[in-house]
Amino acid sequence: MHYGWINAATIKFKVKPEPVKIKGRSTFNVIAYGRTNKSFDWAYRVRDYFESYIDSQSMAPLKYFKTVEEDEYKDVDLVYYDHQKKWLTGKKKSMEMPAYVQDVVSAVFYARTIDFSDAYVGETFPLDIYLDQKIYSLKFKYLGVETINADVGKVRCIKLRPQLVVDRVFKDEDDMTIWVSDDANKIPIRVQTDIWIGSLKVDLEKYKGLKNPFSAKLK
Fold it and tell me: Where are the chain's structural domains?
């Protein structure tokens, strides 16, 4: 993650190799964690950890956990989703929810299941998100196909713009653009976003264990 010309932080996504059972259902255990580099901690210290257990059939999360430390802000959350009963049981709050609601980790993997081959530029896709004891009815927009020069090389990408929750980090709901590989993997290649204190650029540095050939990477 680059803050201007500064290499400010590192983000990792990991899918554990073995499925995990949650309430008798087989799930993908997905972990995302990010931390600012020690050289940047003086400006804004981040130690974030997110974990989602995603049903392997419906691609809807069954369990979600987070612990975040962002400067003076700290928070921990744990929730279980019952999509049949449309009910969320949380460590801090339980509530009604729409079926197949996503969290901030599972949403990334849900979006990767969508076939954009017949999508038109500007088409939007609805997405319900659970975040910090609230449900948000959001969407993301398809912006076409674009080839970019990324840290991993030249990659043909699908370009997307998610609707953001305007909060202590983001100042506008359209301030983020995501590029994912235009192949069967749909792995995130680049993220660019504006925040209250500047702008960030995240480029994929390395990857391993892809299920499909990385055919979007061009020579």
Answer: 2-218
